[in-house]
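STRUCTURE REQUEST FORM
Protein name: Pyruvate formate-lyase-activating enzyme
Source organism: Halobacillus alkaliphilus
Requested output: structure tokens
Priority: standard
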Amino acid sequence: MSGRIHSIETCGAVDGPGLRYIIFTQGCLLRCQYCHNPDTWKIRSGKEMTVQEILQDIKDFLPFFQATGGGVTVSGGEPLLQIDFLAELFKELKKINVHTAIDTSGGCFNRAPHFLEKLDEVLTYTDLVLLDLKHIHQERHKDLTGLSNAHILDFATYLSDNHIPVWIRHLLVPTINDQEEYLHGLADFIQTLSNVEKVEVLPYHLMGVYKWKNLGLTYQLNGIEPPSQAQVLRARQILNHISH
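Status: completed
Returned output:
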């Protein structure tokens, strides 16, 4: 079993608990206007690697993970587009007691029986899902990413119904999704979920803009600056229902 891999980071500290070996898969259905890895979009691109090749590399780093309570996170792109590869990889990782996490936007989730059967298999080997919720408003979400958020919110509910531990991640973009009505709406939705262990607010940044230029793509958020610390703090308070 092999997957198409964009890149690998061997010592990540922000994509799940502890130090993490992070696999960035190739391919994504969303076209987020702020994407800092637009070079992951093409589905049939990237380097083909087998599960065994990746496992061999991971084993060299096992002592570092285990000392920090870390593990392996599969990010992207969108990992669930390569669900068979993901299932095989996680199955092997659980054999050696490695903590597993998926960093996903849920962009390819659907309730077709064939997909759910594969997803359920993956989730039996998954310790944590980092779920990116980009915008609560359906039309604004479509403007921002190219797709509606209906199936993504449905995915969040499915994870809750199946008791899969989740960290919600929300990338805060001034003028796009930082308005209090949207943040309160997202907070209300998160409150309907029973499996959320943590809510993270990630500040929008400009570090990936150069990739758009290199790929000949037009970056549509020119002129939007990263949020202030006060804006990030306010968003964290709302999404975590912290009164002030």
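Reviewer notes: The beta strands are 2-12, 20-25, 47-50, 71-75, 99-104, 128-132, 166-172, 196-203. The chain has a mean pLDDT of 95.
Form closed.
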